[in-house]
């Protein structure tokens, strides 16, 4: 199967130029102006559009078990929604059950994705403990192509690990080429603040944010960076939400520490004010780390522009408002943490970033595709428009105007964090390994066509 994308403007992390893109089978074979269409080739006209590498979302939670419930998008509905938004690869989080083998979590998450995912996918492994050969398990998991681990400094009763465990995981990661992703919040201090709030009868959604102050995030970033430096390891801070945390990251990077970080659209566009919405609607905005006062947003945009933040991911973790978020009526600690966003990442970053002059087109491509591909061992198969790369391509129409919301979206959830937002610029045609899976608002892919990606160790791409 041969496809020629003609007359478009190819935008990569490095450059923007008029060029055609020739695809044979699953791969790009040529990128240059004036390619003659081979006989029998399918022609896609990209006049007036950008041709970019497909989006890579390295922070998703599909079909994620949380107590008695699960996040409301599974690998079928979540990856289909991702494709509509121009994302062609995700890296989802598998969770080691406390006391169980990492291999069991890896197998369980692969079973969840197989036969369902419409786009390619990989996994990170959340480590909840090292008992019973955990360090050797890490090596085994890296050999399977899971080359990143996540640790929690929050949630003492379920996921948090102590500093000694963080240090040992980081030392091992430095040896086996894995990247350690960190949820940086001081969970023990937060638990005291939460307990106190509940005792004072402060049960509304807004207290979720008020009991998790920015300094709890900044302190944990500082500590995790220091532990990483002692271990000789790199660290990747997930979902940076505050100026305070970003300041710690900038200081570490300025002295040459191997520190990387992501933020997410919700921290750039929403604020703690949203948690005050009446009729319990604030629960829709209960995410962790929490939304911050508005004044943090400008700092995060600057971080994305200047490179202190390298990645824009979503932390897509949707729960229905009607029957899942509702579990926390009368007690904010029982509101499932998380929100939907896997479909909206590119259009939001484009509209509020590129259209509003905060990001160049090339910086946009880097943040949503190339940098995550490089950091997480997918490059140059993914995250690039070049001969030899997978033909994961988005034909991006900068003129499409959309109103974001449940009515226009495809995520399996009953609300949008961005209901009513007017944005300009959207994915018109999306190719995954050479196959058109979305065109002009229609899904042409199928569940189960997505493939597990064995990712390379850090530093190999
Ligand atoms: Zn997350």
* Average residue pLDDT: 97
Q: End-to-end distance, in Å? A: 28 Å
Uncertain segments are: none
The ligands found in this model are: zinc ion
Q: Helices and strands: which structural class? A: alpha/beta
Major pleated sheet: 8 strands, parallel
Summarize the amount of helix as a percent range: 25-40%
Strand content: 15-25%
Number of strands: 21
Alpha plus pi helix count: 12
Specify the oligomeric state.
single chain
**Outline:** globular
Q: Could you tell me the radius of gyration in angstroms?
A: 21 Å
Biggest β-sheet: strands ordered side by side in the sheet: 8-11-12-13-14-15-16-17
Write a brief structural summary.
The protein is α/β, with parallel strands linked by helices and 461 residues long. Helices cover 30% and strands 23% of the residues. The protein has helices at residues 75-84, 102-113, 134-143, 163-176, 187-199, 206-210, 214-231, 243-254, 265-269, 296-306, 345-355, 361-375, and strands spanning 2-6, 9-11, 16-18, 20-24, 27-32, 42-45, 50-53, 55-60, 65-66, 69-70, 87-95, 120-126, 148-152, 179-183, 235-237, 259-263, 311-312, 393-403, 422-432, 435-439, 442-443.
């Amino acid at each position: 199967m041969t496809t020629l994308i003609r007359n478009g403007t190819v935008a990569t992390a490095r450059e923007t130029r008029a060029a055609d893109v020739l695809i044979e089978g699953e791969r790009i074979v040529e990128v240059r102006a004036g390619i003659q269409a081979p006989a029998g080739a399918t022609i896609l006209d990209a006049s007036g559009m950008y041709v970019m590498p497909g989006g890579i979302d390295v922070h998703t939670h599909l079909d994620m078990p949380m107590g008695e419930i699960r996040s409301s998008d599974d690998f079928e509905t979540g990856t289909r929604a991702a494709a509509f938004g121009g994302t062609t690869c995700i890296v989802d989080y598998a969770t080691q059950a406390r006391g169980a083998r990492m291999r069991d979590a890896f197998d369980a998450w692969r079973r969840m994705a197989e036969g369902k995912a419409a786009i390619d996918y990989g996994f990170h492994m959340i480590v909840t403990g090292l008992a019973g050969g955990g360090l050797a398990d890490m090596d085994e998991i890296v050999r399977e192509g899971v080359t990143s681990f996540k640790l929690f400094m929050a949630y003492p009763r379920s996921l948090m690990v102590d500093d000694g465990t963080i240090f040992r995981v980081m030392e091992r990661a430095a040896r086996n080429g894995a990247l350690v992703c960190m949820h940086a919040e001081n969970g023990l201090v937060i638990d005291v603040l939460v307990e106190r709030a509940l005792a004072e009868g402060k049960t509304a959604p807004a207290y979720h944010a008020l009991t998790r102050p920015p300094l709890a995030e900044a302190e944990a970033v500082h500590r995790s960076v220091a532990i990483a430096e002692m271990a000789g390891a790199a660290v990747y801070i997930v979902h940076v939400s505050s100026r305070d945390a970003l300041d710690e990251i900038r200081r570490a990077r300025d002295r040459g520490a191997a520190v990387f970080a992501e933020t997410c659209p919700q921290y750039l566009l929403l604020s703690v004010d949203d948690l005050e919405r009446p009729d319990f609607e604030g629960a829709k905005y209960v995410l962790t780390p929490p939304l911050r006062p508005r004044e943090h947003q400008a700092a995060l945009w600057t971080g994305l522009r200047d490179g202190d933040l390298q990645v824009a991911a979503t932390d897509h973790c949707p729960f229905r408002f009607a029957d899942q978020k509702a579990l926390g009526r009368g007690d904010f600690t029982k509101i499932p943490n998380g929100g939907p966003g896997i479909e909206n990442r590119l259009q939001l970053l484009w509209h509020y970033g590129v259209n509003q002059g905060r990001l160049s087109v090339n910086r946009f491509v880097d943040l949503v595709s190339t940098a995550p591909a490089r950091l997480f061992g997918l490059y140059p198969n993914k995250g690039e428009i070049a001969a030899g790369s997978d033909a994961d391509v988005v034909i991006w129409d900068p003129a499409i105007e959309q109103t974001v919301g449940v009515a226009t979206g495809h995520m399996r959830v009953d609300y949008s964090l961005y209901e009513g937002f007017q944005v300009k610029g959207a994915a018109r045609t999306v190719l995954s390994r050479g196959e058109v899976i979305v065109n002009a608002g229609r899904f042409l892919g199928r569940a189960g066509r997505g493939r597990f990606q064995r990712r390379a160790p850090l530093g190999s791409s």
